[in-house]
Every structure is written in structure tokens, then in C-alpha cells.
């Protein structure tokens, strides 16, 4: 480094220090002016200690209420999370329930497989009972029910066989299920054309 560069850096550093000192002095002057203005105020204009105490109490109560609301909200969210924690597992098991129902339908047609039907029915009922204990429930859909786009999934529309079935459900192709209050699979239905 040359001597000229060193002096330029020193000059720069000195200028920075001087600017900092001036800003600190300016702040001190402003603080002194504020203090003098406060001293000049009459005693009537200053807030009383009771008013300050009341303001602090209000602030404390608001903060406490906000914290209680936070606790209530997080506990509610935690409960909802526990209710729907098994959603992924339930969604994976739903096709297995469908397969059991199809198997039972086909086994009923075969009169010679009575023992097989009893075994499959027993396993199906046990699986269904276990899933129901964990919060799974089937969504009931009957012919003639009003179609609701929030609940049902229309896969097709066909001409309504009668006037009273126009815009209503004609057939349910696939069952829908709820886990708690949340729909995890919408029932697939056929709707009558209006």
C-alpha cells in the first residue's frame, strides 16, 4: 500500500467518525428539547398514575385474551389433525373395501360356495367395523336424492326415466366415504338429465 492510499483511507474513516459524532449530538439536542417541552407542560396535561395503571391493565387483559384465543385455536387444530391423521391410510384401504363388496356380490350368485361367502363376509365385516371405529363412515346415496355438487361426483348424465328424477340421482356407481366430517371420497353417481 502506498502512503497516499493510507491517508485517503484514514481521511475517510475520520470523516465517518465525525459524521457519527454529529448525528449523536443532534439526537442529544432533540432529546433535550423534548424533555424541556415536557417540563413546560402543566400538571393537568400529564397523564395521572391511575390512568397509566388503567392503560397497562387494559393492555395486559387484551394480551391475556389473545393468548387464550391462541390456545383454544391451536387445541382445536390439533384435535382436527388427530381426527384426519389416518386419511391417507383410509384412502388407500377404500379400494379394498370395494373389492370385498364386488367379491360378495359374485359369491352370492354361486350357490355352491356358501362357506366361502361366509368367510369373505366375516373378513369384510371385521375390516369395515375396524375402519368405522377409526372414524370412517359411508355416505348414504339413494335413488331420487337431490344431486349436490359439493357432496356427489357426477360421472354421467342419462335421460331421466321419469319426470320426478330429472336433476336427481338415478344410480350410485361407487360409494363415497367420510372420515369424521371430511369427505375423503365423493360418491360417483349417475344423474338424470333435465
TrEMBL record:
> Could you tell me which residues belong to the region Disordered?
1-52
Top-level taxon in the UniProt lineage: Bacteria
Localization, UniProt: Cytoplasm
Which ranges are annotated Basic and acidic residues under compositional bias? Answer: 1-20
Listed Acidic residues bias regions: 27-42
Which GO molecular function annotations are given, in alphabetical order? Answer: adenyl-nucleotide exchange factor activity; protein homodimerization activity; protein-folding chaperone binding; unfolded protein binding
- Keywords, sorted A to Z: Chaperone, Cytoplasm, Stress response
InterPro entries per UniProt: GrpE, GrpE_CC, GrpE_head
* Annotated GO biological process: protein folding
**Which cellular components does GO assign to this protein?**
cytoplasm
Main location group: cytoplasm
Tell me, in a sentence or two, what this protein's role is.
Answer: Participates actively in the response to hyperosmotic and heat shock by preventing the aggregation of stress-denatured proteins, in association with DnaK and GrpE. It is the nucleotide exchange factor for DnaK and may function as a thermosensor. Unfolded proteins bind initially to DnaJ; upon interaction with the DnaJ-bound protein, DnaK hydrolyzes its bound ATP, resulting in the formation of a stable complex. GrpE releases ADP from DnaK; ATP binding to DnaK triggers the release of the substrate protein, thus completing the reaction cycle.
Subunit structure of this chain's protein: Homodimer.
Q: Which family does it belong to?
A: Belongs to the GrpE family.
- Its protein name is Protein GrpE
Species, as recorded? Tenacibaculum jejuense
Its lineage reads: Bacteria, Pseudomonadati, Bacteroidota, Flavobacteriia, Flavobacteriales
